[in-house]
From TrEMBL:
Pfam families: ABC_tran (PF00005), oligo_HPY (PF08352). Keywords: ATP-binding, Nucleotide-binding, Transport. One of its GO terms (biological process) is peptide transport. Belongs to the ABC transporter superfamily. PANTHER family: D,D-DIPEPTIDE TRANSPORT ATP-BINDING PROTEIN DDPF-RELATED, TRANSPORT ATP-BINDING PROTEIN. This is Peptide ABC transporter ATP-binding protein. The keyword Transport applies. GO terms for molecular function: ATP binding; ATP hydrolysis activity.
């Protein structure tokens, strides 16, 4: 039995979310123009993100998961306004930042920062660490000397040796380079960090160190994270709540424990069934749900529930009626038949 949602704050939201949330995202949509064919005709727009809504409280981490191409990065880039949404709103600390001019965006650039997947390619190889970390401060009007001093402090904060401040990115390992990326993101004293696959490009042994660092920084600095990753074990470790995306939409969102212990959406169940379990007995009992085929193109999403061509539970109504997010088992699920 499910209950439709009418109120603005989504279920599974932090208590008191809505007006009090640090970040409120409503109906966020990104439709990229379709590709031109050889005859010059433009194809259907690619709805990479299609009506995404969620809240994030101060100090909270929301994990964003889903298969490649489901719209995670596009969502993250719209949150920090690296991409202009086609429609919808992003309200940060009570202020709609969706359509601000570049000039009016300055305070947002201070408060909201992004950490990228590949540390080496996201750092300018021709700049020293000092310059890389100082850059956001220089943009905010700091003097070069103050910015350099702050860069050295930040290096220490993220576990780098401040004496290496005049080195170049190639002189650092992948893990160290990601620490530089994190230090740069912290330079302006942000309150929210959107981390897009921050550990996926790193060796497994280094991943845990970076995750530990991000958790420590969250506590010490009172940060909030939107943590994008395809590794569900990493997301389980860092998140308070988790949102599962499929073909540009959130299909399940709720408290981490609810979602991992009793996934309600067939897609979430399939994703989680692929995660190895630490307990050997449970691992032996683990049943994999293998999804057929690849996700459809966001340029031509299937009618009804966009997951229906791959869903083991699909019924007739799924082919025609799009399920909206509704409360089921203490979280929100977009499925006509949630649960077992
Ligand atoms: N600039 C663009 N123009 C057209 N289509 C785009 C553009 N950027 C992304 N897309 C398409 O939008 C969809 C979502 O892409 P996005 O990069 O957000 O997915 P993702 O979930 O981050 O995937 P991954 O896990 O591989 O990083 C994909 O179909 C992608 O091809
Ligand atoms: S709505 Fe139907 S097709 Fe979609 S996930 Fe639920 S059961 Fe599967
Ligand atoms: Mg991505």
């Amino acid at each position: 039995m499910t209950t439709p949602i009418h109120a603005a704050p989504p279920a599974g939201s932090p208590e008191g979310a809505g007006p009090a949330a640090l970040l409120s995202v409503r109906d966020l949509t990104m439709a990229f123009p379709g590709r031109r064919s050889a005859t010059g005709r433009r194809g259907a727009p690619v709805r990479a993100v299609d009506g995404v809504s969620f809240d994030l409280a101060a100090g909270e981490t929301l994990g964003l998961v889903g298969e490649s191409g489901c719209g995670k990065s596009t969502t993250g880039r719209m949150l920090v306004r690296l991409l202009e949404p086609t429609s919808g709103s992003v309200v940060f600390d009570g202020r709609d930042v969706t359509r601000l001019s570049q000039r009016a965006l300055r305070p947002l650039r201070r408060d909201v920062q992004m950490v990228f997947q590949d540390p080496h390619s996201s750092l300018n190889p021709r700049q020293t660490v000092s310059r890389i970390i100082s850059d956001p401060l220089l943009v905010q009007g700091w003097s070069a000397a103050d910015a350099r001093r702050r860069a050295a402090e930040l290096m220490e904060l993220v576990g780098l040796i401040p004496e290496h401040i005049d080195r170049y990115p190639h002189e650092f390992s992948g893990g160290q380079a990601q620490r530089i990326g994190i230090a740069r993101s912290l330079a302006t004293g942000p309150r929210l960090i959107v981390a897009d696959e921050p550990v996926s490009a790193l060796d497994v042994s280094v991943q845990a160190q970076i995750v530990n660092l991000m958790e420590r920084l969250r506590e010490e600095l009172g940060l909030s994270y939107v943590f994008i990753a395809h590794d569900l074990s990493v997301v389980k470790r860092v998140s308070d709540r988790v949102a599962v995306m499929y073909l540009g939409r959130i299909v399940e969102i709720g408290a981490k424990r609810d979602l991992y212990d009793t996934p309600q959406h067939p897609y979430t169940r399939a994703l989680l069934s692929a995660v190895p379990l630490p307990d050997p007995a449970a691992e032996r009992r683990r049943e994999r749900i293998v999804l057929l085929g690849d996700p459809p193109s966001p340029a031509a999403p299937p009618p009804g529930c966009s997951f229906h061509p791959r869903c083991p539970k699909a019924q007739e109504v799924c082919r025609t009626e799009r399920p909206l997010l509704r409360i089921a088992a203490s979280r929100e699920v977009a499925c006509h038949f949630p649960g077992d």
